[in-house]
Specification:
With 458 residues, this protein is mostly beta strands. It is 11% helix and 32% strand. One of its GO terms (molecular function) is cellulose 1,4-beta-cellobiosidase activity.
Length: 458
């Protein structure tokens, strides 16, 4: 994901985070089926579940129900320092549908943007796929494989992001590495990505209370001294007006806590341990404004299938990741990916190191993707195993303009790489979206994975 800040804005303390496991609300993971394929028309159904990220959960004292975090502020008596806070505070179970607008039915997951519960208003959500034993996160290695899902994002306007992606989290949520993390995957702990987000309340089993600063635009979010970094493969970041597929890589393996220059914050964006820009393929940004959107070749007013294929150098799971290909299926028709139409750029239709280097040169962008190892490092991350994430969010930092509008906003739309979608540069304000589009939803369904060519009819 590109600029990542707070994803949440609750009007009371249901949006809090911790490392102990609470007992006031029973945690029951909603069920979700996934298909594992071995060949064309040969798939078996796996019974999985999803778990809500710890960032959205109620955090209270282990001895009662006093909030450890309210609004933008930590309770200084319960959380005077990182270690004491981890001892004093417990995450609790979630009411998935009533509080968070998260529902499942068979192979379909629905994420609602705004949910008005009896005591709170919840904004957005982020969930992870659990393994079939419902004990850890499911790990995926997609080298020489493909990953397929259906998406309905017809109800996602400019400024929202219905995202499906992989990150290199610990399968157990961090419990084996950090003894003070008692909650683990069952309660959605251990998140990381290439933006090295500082809004994570607990990192490495400790509260991120040091130098905590309240967000000026989100009354329930803030940032701490540390960030949580790891490799990230963005399969799908999209709304009804645009979409991008983007690998991001880091110089570290696995979830890593950063501080200072390591995090790549602000003016140090290209000095950190992760590639925050990534190597994106966004059809509109690559010069084809007729390919994806309402009534276009891929019609976003209706459900469609997204297929992503991960080719290796020797066409085996042991090879080096060398190419990421994308295709779509809608109304029974297989649709090839769009081709780049940028002056001076060859007609690429997939992500390779060659494409990434040429794109960075054509757009005048800093090539941190190549600097940090490119597709080879992305493949190494899959070797380790990556966790499936699905979310819906608004963007307090950059209003999602990097996905669906002109970005940076002081650039000319005629400059290659600046125009990324048809949305106005005034769109995407979270307060406007929360007021005017509370019913916005994304539905991910029919998830399949297996050898290339095995997950869709062709």
């Amino acid at each position: 994901m590109f600029p990542f800040l707070a994803l949440i804005s609750l009007s009371y303390a249901a949006i809090v985070y911790g490392q102990q496991a609470g007992t006031l609300t029973t945690e029951t993971h909603p069920k979700l089926t996934v298909q594992k394929c071995s060949g064309s028309n040969s798939c078996t159904t796996e019974n999985h579940s999803i778990v809500l990220d710890s960032n959205w959960r109620w955090l209270h004292s282990t001895s009662g129900s006093n909030n450890c975090y309210t609004g933008n502020t930590w309770d200084t008596s319960l959380c005077p320092d990182p270690a004491t806070c981890a001892q004093n505070c417990a995450l609790d179970g979630a009411d998935y549908s009533g509080t968070y607008g998260i529902t499942t039915s068979g192979n379909a997951l629905t994420l609602k943007f705004v949910t008005n519960g009896p005591y709170s208003t919840n904004i957005g959500s982020r969930v992870y796929l659990m393994d079939t034993a419902d004990s850890k996160y499911q790990l995926f290695n997609l080298k020489n494989q493909e990953f397929t899902f259906d998406v309905d994002m017809s109800q996602l306007p400019c400024g929202l992001n219905g995202a499906l992606y992989f990150v290199e989290m610990d399968a157990d949520g961090g419990t084996s590495r950090f003894s003070t993390n008692k909650a683990g995957a069952k309660y959605g702990t251990g998140y990381c990505d290439t933006q090295c987000p500082h809004d994570i309340k607990f990192i490495n089993g400790e509260a991120n209370v040091a130098n905590w600063t309240a967000s000026p635009s989100d009354p329930n979010a803030g940032t701490g001294q540390y960030g949580s970094c790891c490799n990230e493969m963005d399969i799908w970041e999209a709304n009804s007006q645009g979409a991008a597929v983007t690998p991001h890589v880091c110089s570290v393996q696995g979830q890593t806590r950063c501080s200072g220059t390591q995090c790549g914050d602000g003016d140090q964006r290209y000095d950190g341990i992760c590639d925050k820009d990534g190597c994106d393929f966004n059809s509109w940004r690559m010069g084809d404004q007729t390919f994806l959107g309402p009534g276009k070749t891929v019609d976003t007013t209706k459900k469609f299938t997204v297929v992503t294929q991960f080719y290796t150098s020797n066409n085996s799971t042991s090879g080096t990741l060398s190419e990421i290909r994308r295709l779509y299926v809608q109304n029974g028709k297989v649709i090839a990916n769009s081709k780049t139409k940028i002056s001076g750029l060859s007609a690429y239709d997939s992500i390779t190191d060659e494409f990434c280097n040429a794109q960075k040169t054509a757009f005048g962008d800093t090539n941190s993707f190549e600097k940090l190892g490119g597709l080879n490092v992305m493949g190494q991350s899959f070797d380790k195993g990556m966790v499936l994430v699905m979310s819906v969010w608004d963007d307090h930092e950059a209003q999602m303009l990097w996905l669906d509008s002109n970005y940076p906003t002081n650039g000319s739309a005629s400059t290659p790489g600046v125009s990324r979608g048809p949305c106005a540069t005034t769109s995407g304000q979270p307060t406007d979206l929360e007021k005017n589009s509370p019913g916005a939803t994304v539905i991910f369904s029919n998830i399949k994975y297996g050898p290339i060519g095995s997950t869709y009819a062709h």
